[in-house]
Every structure is written in structure tokens, then in C-alpha cells.
Amino acid sequence: MRKKIKRIAAALLCGALVIGTAACGATKAAVDDVAAMRGKGVGAGETYIDDNAIALVFQATPSSDSLDAASAALALVNTQRASAGLSALAWSDRLAQAAMVRATEIQTSFSHTRPNGTDWWTVDSTVQYGENLAKLYNSADSVVAAWMNSPSHKANIMAADFKSCGIAISRTADNKWYWAQEFGY
User: 10 Å Cβ neighbour count for 159?
Assistant: First the structure.
């Protein structure tokens, strides 16, 4: 009887994982359904900078492997852009700070809407114009491949107007990686 209950529980858990995440190959990881982009005129005249959220980022020190993975992801993105004749995206510390806020937030609410109900770009509206999210990818190679296999995420990566990027990874205690890639003009 216990074995049967364990099998049922395992089947339900696997079913929930399949329903709750989009698989990329054999990897049980997910990118959000649609990447986010806001036009240059959206939010015009209003500046949103969530100082409290950004202040929390400065209290957390990302691990060296997270920083290495974010840097590697940007290098892979720039390789994709170069192969299409586009200029490289420059690293932006401000976008990386906003990305860390978003990577942390999506641990509780995997969405382009922030947990407080505001739009994703309200972390720092002066720099955020595009966003790609992903969860459960533990390498730059796998997350960039997933983004490039998604038309809306690829569109953000390949947008010629974007000139800067920041990427951050927030990791849970059980080593689940949550990625945020923020783009700017």
C-alpha cells in the first residue's frame, strides 16, 4: 500500500512539473511564456525606481559562479547577435541590479508582473525596456539556448535597438536557479 501511495505521489509530482514548466529538450526547466518589452513611450513622464528593492540587492552578494554564469550568458547572447550582424550588448550595472531584483522576485511569482502587482519595469523605469526570465537552468548554455528557441525571447535578444544588458541569477537554498535578463537602449 505504501509503495502504491509513493508511486501515485511521484506521478502527481511529475505531472505537476510537466504542467507547471515548459521543457527544453530533456531538461525540466522553464522560460516564461512570453518575453516582455515596453515601448519607449510607455511610462513616459513618470520615473519609477524601487529604491527599497534595489537596496536589498546591495545586501546580497552573488556567488562567483552566478556572476560567471551571467557573464557567460551575455557572451553567448553577443555571439548570437554578432552572427546576425548586430552590435554587442554592453554590460550595464544598473540593469544587472534591476535583474537581481527581478530574479529574486520570480522565485515567488514567476511572471512579468512583480509580486506587488506593478509592471516588471518599475524596478528602474529609467533603464528597463525588455525582459527575459527563466528558471531551473543551471548553466549559461542551457538558458541562452532556451531563450533562443523561444520566438519572443529571441526577439528581445536580437532587437537591434537594445544596446545594453544586465543578467542576474538568484539561487534558492536547494540550488534552483532563477534568471532575469534586462535590456536597455
Answer: 18
